[in-house]
């Protein structure tokens, strides 16, 4: 024993390593005992743990690989099939609790709202989104929501005339020879142009754009930035491992420079008391705050919502409709009965009439159910707490959630649970909404509770208006003969990995 002590004294590095390991073991044992005691006091039973490898490294590498390939929803879906609706996994320095239980989602988003926040997500998204509404907790989030909410109650927010300008450009880009084409990039170009027009006051696709930059370059930089953020958020505490890529950081800088340009214009117009004849979101926001960073951060946060999510939804709608000709024709009948076709319009398209289009709403709901544009959401526990279900042998008891635990909840998988939606849960069936229209926490494509999406109605109006115009212009929608099952890819939002290849034409033309 004395020899060993002498040997360690002669090797201080080895001694330090051994001491560190001993302290880590003692700390883990102490924390485990403490967590067990806390769990019992909260009435929790042990949850299921999935295999994670030494120190959680095995599972971390699996997640990192899925993030890089855009297959996170497929990974999560397979894990739920193996481990059940709520289970835990370890990664280096942290614990993850996966859940697709509506009761848990309701607790996280409403009744236990104060127990949870964005956690690591806020830091990992910060290089692009700063302290905007989707990227902030606490007072910063509350202030941003107070700032933005009034703008979304205004009638001008969903400007149908503005949308029409960009829909005409969209329709002109559709091949006239009945050939197959990928409609997904056209939807992203449309929402990029309409969102920047609505938010900034002019579309980046306009030749008169005072910034001198095009929509294509901006869209590419924005996409590249989001790809980087997706990898950072999957890495959690180890997000620094994916930093340092100059391509990504320069993409963020490009996006910031464009946004800063329009912020300066909005502040100058306020100082000069100049007001546009058309409602411009950024100018309206500048009446309430003159902080350039607050304006930039929130306008970029809104751009993700207005651009990516609506383009994702429209792409999914066209994918499913192209494989369901009966649904497409029934939808056209509803639209033409109300508004006529493009050559013989029979009535003005208004917000009120759009909201009354029942079958159109069913079609959009069903696409949002099967392919929610933000298919995975997450929160972090701000303190030791619990969730209603997930503990015990049957998963029906309360489950303990340790402070710092990250909780991803997959809307993609929850929206496809056969015990909730029936045996046809993975099939596109808009008619289910005639009987399931009162769904609440089983269906949350726009989130819920205090952080429910402010732009929900704007997005639904824009998607509805696009579908009305498509139905008025084209009577035939066909697919490329490929699989009826979409191959979804996820960065921060969902896209179709192989595009959405369709034919759109009018048989009478």
Automatic annotation (TrEMBL):
CDD domains to which the protein is assigned, alphabetical: CYP52
Segments passing through the bilayer: 12-30
SUPFAM superfamilies: Cytochrome P450
Family matches, as InterPro entries: Cyt_P450, Cyt_P450_CS, Cyt_P450_E_CYP52_ascomycetes, Cyt_P450_E_CYP52_fungi, Cyt_P450_E_grp-II, Cyt_P450_sf
Sequence positions that bind heme: 453
UniProt KW Signal keyword: no
Keywords: Heme, Iron, Membrane, Metal-binding, Monooxygenase, Oxidoreductase, Transmembrane, Transmembrane helix
Cofactors, names only: heme
Any one Pfam family match given in the protein's UniProt record, by short name: p450
Molecular functions per Gene Ontology: heme binding; iron ion binding; oxidoreductase activity, acting on paired donors, with incorporation or reduction of molecular oxygen, reduced flavin or flavoprotein as one donor, and incorporation of one atom of oxygen
Protein family (similarity comment): Belongs to the cytochrome P450 family.
Protein name: Uncharacterized protein
Species the sequence originates in: Talaromyces islandicus (Penicillium islandicum)
